[in-house]
Amino acid sequence: MPEDSHHSSRGSDHPVGMNVARRVPPADDADGNDDDDAAAMGLCWGQPKIPDPFVWPQADALASSERELDAPVVDVGAAMRGGGDGDGMRRAAEQVAAACASHGLFQVTGHGLDPALARAALDGAAGFFRLPLATKRRARRAPGNVTGYAAAHVDRFTANLPWKETLSFGHRDHRAAGAHVVVNYFTSVLGSEFKPLGAVYQDYCEAMKQVSLAIMEVIGVSLGVGRSCYRDFFADGCSIMRCNYYPPCPEPERALGTGPHCDPSALTLLLQDGAVDGLQVLVDGEWRPVRPRPGALVVNIGDTFTALSNGRYRSCLHRAVVHRERERRSLAFFLCPREDRVVRPPPRLLAAARGQEERRRRYPDFTWADMARFTQRHYRADARTLEALARWLGAAAPTCAAATSASQSQDKAQETA
């Protein structure tokens, strides 16, 4: 999930992390000021200069490097052939291990995503963001909620605003949930005329879930815990889908589409539209671009998986830049565990670690519900989210005591696997 949350401490009046200006809705207006979205779109998009709230600090808006990020292209289809035990899997696992121990990003091909479905999902996002503001506002995001429509997060912040619009919604396997949750979201929030678009995103999310689980098999092999360990962990998870729109910006050197952050989720699958770049990763003090590759999905590690790997795989610190004349769209699928599932490294991973230091737990137990609440209501995700979450949990509950019995059952299942 991109950086769109406020920093404060649970159980304390003192903030954890950097101070970020935040808009607090009046008591008689729980949804905030109805003019916020209109101000962001009408007074900013298409204007000759950007307002001060959209100007980012120079340290965050450093110039982009001319050097493209050296990210491996992993053929996940070849990895899964022959039951996932051949040379294709070994090659993919080596590539993933190298990328995740360095900057945490790679690209995948051979994923099986239908190009027609990908095009329909991208075109659907383009059509949604062209709708009248009044229509988009039907899906307006409620305070503290990750799902819904937002324009530049002006409903939550007064500084360091991202130059973008987003539409986010949740996904669960409809066979497990008993309903087409994405279709139901579109029809209940936007209206029955949006059922076909909801069906497109239902299919797209289900395809992304299957690709994510295949990637988790490769990651499991790369860490030596087996193909099923992480796949089983996320099989019944809840995920988040986000459509991003970055309008042309009159002063792109002073603005950012998304500020520097690591995703709180476990894994992000990004589909970039066309040849317009924008995604960048910080490596050796340089912001290096990730060029769109036809037919490929960009995959990056998030904080939740960093905790699951006990810090062996790094969260990807990234940002999105904007352009003076070109607009950009992308689709991000954030793989997350079930809300009550305890996030902790598999016992096999710790047992196989070399030396006492590598076996030492780097992060406390937490659930995805903990992480989601923290990053949506208390902290604006950045490069220090996991450390801040550990402090936040320490102030409220040392190691997710409410989930102790669930974590013990989980350990036993992982050891059996």
TrEMBL record:
Keywords: Iron, Metal-binding, Oxidoreductase. It catalyses: gibberellin A53 + 2 2-oxoglutarate + 3 O2 + H(+) = gibberellin A20 + 2 succinate + 3 CO2 + 2 H2O; gibberellin A12 + 2 2-oxoglutarate + 3 O2 + H(+) = gibberellin A9 + 2 succinate + 3 CO2 + 2 H2O. Its cofactor is L-ascorbate. Residues 1-13 have a biased composition (Basic and acidic residues). Residues 1-38 are annotated as: Disordered. GO terms for molecular function: metal ion binding; oxidoreductase activity. Residues 234-337 form the Fe2OG dioxygenase domain. Gene3D superfamilies: B-lactam Antibiotic, Isopenicillin N Synthase, Chain. SUPFAM superfamilies: Clavaminate synthase-like (SSF51197). Residues 28-38 have a biased composition (Acidic residues). GO terms for biological process: gibberellin metabolic process. Belongs to the iron/ascorbate-dependent oxidoreductase family. This is Fe2OG dioxygenase domain-containing protein. It comes from Panicum hallii var. hallii.
